[in-house]
Amino acid sequence: MIDLHTHSTASDGLLSPKQLIELAAEKGLSAIALTDHDTIDGIAEASETAAALPLTFIPGIELNIEWHPGEFHLLGLGLTDISPKLLNIISYLQDGRKYRNQEMIKLMQKDGFPVSPEELQERYPDTVIGRPHIAAYLVEKNIVKTRQKAFDLYLAQGRPYYVERKGAELDSAIQAIIDSGGVPVLAHPLSLYVSWGRIEPLLANLKERGIAGIEAWHPGARHAECIRLEKIGREYQFFITAGSDFHGEQIRPDRKLGHTAGGDKIADRFWTDELHPYLKTISEKKSQNDGLDSAIPL
User: The whole model's pTM is what?
Assistant: First the structure.
């Protein structure tokens, strides 16, 4: 059992990177990727923790890409050497998040809500703050009873305090991940809100632009949809990944570490037969180009 899509407190997860890795080992996972939103701040702690455990750690990230009308999230898996381009994109996205948070708080303040961006930042000092944190903050303020209620009433798209957030330019993000030694993977494709009739030409285009894999298996999709996505992905020669998109069971009880659509355990094949051979090939090519004696260990 593995998991190629997880989050920690470095972005909007409930567990610290250390706690996440320890939980993965406790549950018997053989490999795990940390893919926090728009940050790599949790990677060092997670990597250090995993080094003492019988667990393969895959450094990653999840980038928000400019896209309408749905959401385009791009995973970068197997990061080995963070490029200046990726750092610039992270800075741009984090600045956009800060601006968005301020604008949402301003709208709430205008309607008399007792909230402040300073107080929000104090509650989450080492985190890339997003809507889940604002939702939790509204619960603490007794403005709503649950985080889900905060989204339903105020923060979801179309609700009164929703503000669009900035996304990275796709081709730049793809190249930044490649330059960082990683591979670009389209996360949860159904979030693009593209019809089945349009998804094939879109995937063909994304393949040409450098995306190497698709996360066909995600708990936000039905089992039959995942099977269909995997079949299409293979037709266009993507490698296939699977993840839980785990944030913590108290945040999303339906998303369990090491499990994906339909509650299925995430099979080792998505690492041993899909991602790892791809990363190994990249590593070997890099070692040859650099004139090194051996590839980067993965």
Answer: 0.90
